[in-house]
Design goal:
It contains one helix and eleven strands; from the N terminus they run αβββββββββββ. It is an alpha+beta fold and 152 residues long. The chain folds into two domains: 31 residues; 119 residues, Cupredoxins -  blue copper proteins (Immunoglobulin-like), CATH 2.60.40.420. A hairpin with a 2-residue loop joins β3 and β4. The longest helix has 27 residues. The protein starts with a helix and ends with a strand. The relative contact order is 0.19. The mean pLDDT is 89. It binds dinuclear copper ion. The site of dinuclear copper ion has 8 residues, from loops.
Length: 152
């Protein structure tokens, strides 16, 4: 009779795992970064390019769009300020080598590849300072490549 309860337990665990997998797929698929478009890394900073003037702009009701340049060894803009509850759509690219765009305390983590525009969005429900770090080794200044997002 113990065998039967163990069998039942195993079946329940399988169902629980399946539910977890389903939850992960639906809950986090949203955060998978996508290469929104291709861009010529050599002209990315030129006038007329989306990234000529790295910035954050209001594009809706507490919705913001940020054009971020990850370059050796800084993020531009270095500081992004948005109000609490803001949804921010980030477009990130690099004019030089591969970088990372990871916002600490969130699951935003984009591999920034020259020639590609990474797109990711996040809603900042908690006020505070969020560090942006590069988590791809990009050269001697890699560890100093830090940005900031201030949610107030
Ligand atoms: Cu940029 Cu490491």
């Amino acid at each position: 009779r113990y065998e039967r309860s163990w069998l039942l337990f195993a079946l329940v665990m399988i169902v629980v795992f399946l539910i977890f997998i389903g939850y992960t797929l639906t809950g986090f698929a949203f955060y998978v970064p996508s290469a929104a478009e291709r861009i010529d890394p050599t002209t990315v900073r030129n006038e007329g390019s989306l990234f000529a003037n790295p910035r954050v702009e209001k594009t809706g009701d507490n919705v913001y769009t940020a054009y971020v340049l990850a370059q050796a060894f800084t993020f531009l803009p270095g500081e992004i300020r948005v109000p609490k509850g803001a949804k921010v759509v980030f477009y990130v690219t690099s004019p030089d080598v591969q970088h990372g765009f990871h916002i600490r305390g969130t699951n935003v983590n984009v591999q920034v590849i020259p020639g590609e525009v990474g797109k990711v969005e996040h809603t900042f429900d908690e006020p505070g300072e969020y560090l942006v770090i590069c988590n791809e080794y990009c050269g001697l200044g890699h560890q100093d490549m830090i940005g900031k997002i201030i949610v107030e």
